[in-house]
Amino acid sequence: MIGSKSGSTIETASQKSFFEHLLVENQLNPADHIVIVTDPGSPLHNDAKDKGYRVITADPNVGGRFSALSAFGLVPAALIGVDVSELLDDALVASEQFCLEGSLAISIAAVLFESGNQFISFCEENNPNPGLSDWIEQLIAESTGKNQTGRLPIVTQSLSEQQFGTTISFSPGDFDLVVEASLGAQFILWEWVTALLCYALEVDPFNQPNVTEAKEQTNNVLKLKQSYIHLSEIKQFEDSEFILYSNRKINSIADFFKVQMEYVALMAYLTRGVDDSVISLRNLISEKINKPTTFGWGPRFLHSTGQFHKGGQPNGGFVQITSEPILDFAIAGTDYTFNELITAQAIGDGIALRKRDYPFLQIHLKNRKSGIEKLRKIITEL
């Protein structure tokens, strides 16, 4: 299943091209194996109709990150055997209470606004819907992080990890808020909370101007065929394990964390499911410097906290982790590979951050496994 609201998202288009080519190479008809979900009239919709694909159009009036209960969320859920009628029924029952006195949605939005704290900690420990916090992270960060204001979710895995700002859990514990509900009810609740919070913050919940900016930077890097070698002017240090690039004069990773910042965003352009040991650096950094620290896989976070990084409060420090690819594949119909695309996205986002003169550090690993272990050792000794 291929889903894209705009029908022009570069990651989606690239994967679609790759698998179409793979199917044809194996004498299979892509139309027999691909289902498209997109907005009516999008470039993806028009292309799919021309190729005879099965197309399910979504409601164009529902914003992308608010579309968990639209075709974008319901089609893949149904395909893996979820009873989507139960999701919708639970969401409907919950939503009927949101405009009544004592509304849970209004109450949560008010707490998040009136706290005045830009950080919200979501704890995943014992969450009956694992991964829900990652979805809420995108919903809140990308919706509120504009006009140099917003709320930044910090996703933690256990109560033993340091919590910042308003603390929220989905099972009983020592938190500011505990929100227990079915998955369908959680979806509609947090969509309402986010929209109401944006109203209080006086920002548009449905746009993402700085995501578009990052896309434009990526396209420019691809056009110019730039690679990490073009970052030589900000190269600060190199040894057998990694190269450090930064817009601050530093001699070590420890030097970077002495720079003034209110939070750290750790952005890993590595392989999820292979390089997962890098995730532990988030809590380690947070404990050592006593600052809220987020973790995001690149390029996924560009469509999530990436908007907040550039549009929210201008007080973050940004640590990008990159490496050479383990595998690489050409993208049919383009003159670049998947690695070249991801490299362009990392470089493009770095350009956008440095243009604002935000503290930026890129750690380019020469060997992923030993490089991550060395990073753990360095941060442990901070």
UniProtKB/TrEMBL annotation:
GO terms for molecular function: carbohydrate derivative binding; glucose-6-phosphate isomerase activity; monosaccharide binding. Keywords: Gluconeogenesis, Glycolysis, Isomerase. Signal peptide: none annotated. GO terms for biological process: gluconeogenesis; glucose 6-phosphate metabolic process; glycolytic process. GO terms for cellular component: cytosol. This is Unannotated protein. It comes from freshwater metagenome.
